[in-house]
Amino acid sequence: MNMNSSKEKHYVVAIDGTSGSGKSSTARIVAKELGILHLDTGAMYRAVTFLAQEKGIVPVDAEGLKNLLSDLKWEVDARGHLRVNGRDLSREIRTDGVTAAVSDFARIPMVREALVPIQREIGLRNPAVVEGRDMATVVFPNARFKFFMYASPEVRAKRRVMELKTMGQEPDFQHVLANLIERDHIDSSRQHSPLAKAPDAVEIDTSGLTFADQVAIIVSHVLNNR
Questions:
Q1: Are 139 and 65 in contact (CB under 8 A)?
Q2: Alpha carbon distance 4, 127 (integer Å)
Q3: Residue 28 to residues 25, 81, 139, 185: CA-CA distances in angstroms?
């Protein structure tokens, strides 16, 4: 991958949106087609959630969380693969248990304050596609390209069920749907860095789009305007 960090060629593509709207998979392929880094910030919050659960730390345990966060070492390679303290947690962070709890951890100011500087440092080091809940509004408010992806709760729930089945799980559709709706409420109503569309972001309703369509819209926009 040819990543040029010169000032002239550096740019950030910030993709925000609701859970299950296709952000992560779309961002990954967009980054590949543009030949730049992909940073999945949602995976970072999921990793914190998994590691906290592993140690028996609950969201209200401020001291436990503080100690956990201070001990974490983050690595992102040129392909966007994330490791925490040398561990690849790709599968562990996608379980139902993590999904159900991640919003409770992500809305804690201490957690966001610990991760945002790391996200900024990674995104400003090289051209990058960054995705999450507050990329264009808080983490990279000056990003050259901003997108906001969303879809109906039912469509997102179906996608999530399919994703979990590929991981060998047997999720209940109604349970997944209820969890998504609850996460939408938590993410959009939290006091610290809520989920919101940046005023200058391009909106993409993925409900009726194919995956290829989602990727093409973003890649085309970036290539025509960078």
A1: no
A2: 7
A3: 5, 10, 19, 26
Candidates 2, 16, 36, 1; CA nearest to 139 is 16
Record the tokens describing residue 114, joined without a space.
């610990």
Q: Which of 46, 120, 39 is nearest to 90 (CA)?
A: 46
The tens digit of pLDDT for each residue in 55-114 reads 999 999 999 999 999 999 998 876 667 899 999 998 899 888 998 899 899 989 999 999
Structure tokens at 81: 């693969």
Residue 18 and residue 150: Cα distance in Å, rounded? Answer: 5
Write the CATH number of the domain with boundaries 12-219.
3.40.50.300
CA distance 21 to 160: 9
User: Tell me: the pLDDT tens digits for 8-62?
Assistant: 478 999 999 988 888 888 999 999 999 999 998 889 999 999 999 999 999 999 9
- C-alpha 15/C-alpha 92 separation (Å) is 24
The ranges assigned to domains in the chain are 12-219
